Amino acid sequence: MNTKETINQEVNEQTVLNDTDVNSSCQNNTSDTMTDDDTPQTDTMTEQTTEDKSAEEQIDWKDKYIRLQAEFDNFRKRTLREKMDLIQSGGSDVLKAILPILDDMQRAIAASEKSDDIAALREGEKLVVQKFIDTLRQKKVVEIEALDCPFDENLHEAVARFAAGEEKSGKVIDVIERGYMLGDKVLRFAKVVVGE
To answer: What is the pTM of this model?
Structure first.
């Protein structure tokens, strides 16, 4: 082999070695670069995905809140409307029960104009009053017992005091206006005179 060929061969081998070193070092640099670049990109993508999910959750919660608020508002309005209907229908029920008594009173007045029999007229009046009392009892309205009962400020309203002796002291001796209760609630207090 001649010197020239040997030198060429050595140069070629060095070039091949240098190329291999350059390639491997490029690959190492590239892989390092890719690893370094991939990690921040992945973190950035993860942060963006988390932010997107968080924003979507906030929108969902806000939507749920608005819907719940609207449902509650509708519920409140419906409840008020039902309460008003109940009050009106309750009043109409009582009025319908009283109308037949009004008819009886008008008949009694017409009969009193044509008849001179006082006893029969009084009997008719008593029947109408009894019918009215029975209708009130059906609606759970009862009269408050007051006469000769001990004075009770929860049921009676004293309008006067009279000296009536020791037996009647603190007791109701006269009823000026009758009182009524609806179940356990006082509709109207009995106005009474109390003995001293």
So the answer is: 0.53
Encoded amino acid at 4, one letter: K
pLDDT tens digits along 81-92: 999 888 877 777
Could you tell me which of 50, 139, 132, 62 has the C-alpha nearest to residue 94? 139
Q: Which residue has the tokens 């009862």?
A: 142
CB atoms inside a 10 Å sphere around CB 174: 15
CB neighbour class for 156 (10 Å; exposed up to 12, middle 13-18, buried from 19): buried
With beta carbons less than 8 A apart as the criterion, state whether 135 and 151 touch. no
Separation CA 193–CA 181 (nearest Å):
19
Q: What are the structural domains, with CATH classification, of the chain?
A: 3-139 (3.90.20.20), 142-196 (2.30.22.10)
